[in-house]
């Protein structure tokens, strides 16, 4: 089992079916990892279960070959089927308290949070979680119905309040990383800034270099 990145802040890349497909996802993920991404989350919302399984298998192989942590979004069944390192759950997904019992203690479990009350609730059951995501910090178009923007100040308060590592997410790119960095999150999750345009290796390297100054 690959361990969750100990160094902070780490780069956490999330795939997006608008930019990636079975023909380019392996190369894109490999390039992102080589550029500095330590965690890759496979996220797809509009594909069939079979399509997601076949694509997730490709990402699993790429992450395994390059020693990156592999997380599957939402779907515990898919995560187990492809032998992922963990699953990332939303507030309306399978109760996270159940996951460790099903998948084992070493299985990584992340939870999306969008306000301080949800952070407090995660603290109360931290034995079932390995990290939380917090956001969206900035406006984002990677979700059809995004939660309200939290802003940087609330992110900073969430990091201070949380008893778990916090991964900042939502509209983060090289131009606003400095603001995010001052909150000292454990990780920074990006989608568009990594995979929408250009070479994911170059994109990841630029973000990683900026994170090194946090």
TrEMBL record:
One of its GO terms (molecular function) is magnesium ion binding. Binds 1 Mg(2+) ion per subunit. Its cofactor is Mg(2+). 4-amino-2-methyl-5-(diphosphooxymethyl)pyrimidine binds at residues 41-45, 73, 112, 143. It comes from the Bacteria. Mg(2+) binds at residues 74, 93. Its EC number is 2.5.1.3. It catalyses: 4-methyl-5-(2-phosphooxyethyl)-thiazole + 4-amino-2-methyl-5-(diphosphooxymethyl)pyrimidine + H(+) = thiamine phosphate + diphosphate; 2-[(2R,5Z)-2-carboxy-4-methylthiazol-5(2H)-ylidene]ethyl phosphate + 4-amino-2-methyl-5-(diphosphooxymethyl)pyrimidine + 2 H(+) = thiamine phosphate + CO2 + diphosphate; 2-(2-carboxy-4-methylthiazol-5-yl)ethyl phosphate + 4-amino-2-methyl-5-(diphosphooxymethyl)pyrimidine + 2 H(+) = thiamine phosphate + CO2 + diphosphate. Keywords: Magnesium, Metal-binding, Thiamine biosynthesis, Transferase. 2-[(2R,5Z)-2-carboxy-4-methylthiazol-5(2H)-ylidene]ethyl phosphate binds at residues 140-142, 171. It is an enzyme of class 2 (transferase). This is Thiamine-phosphate synthase. It comes from Thermovibrio ammonificans (strain DSM 15698 / JCM 12110 / HB-1). The gene is thiE.
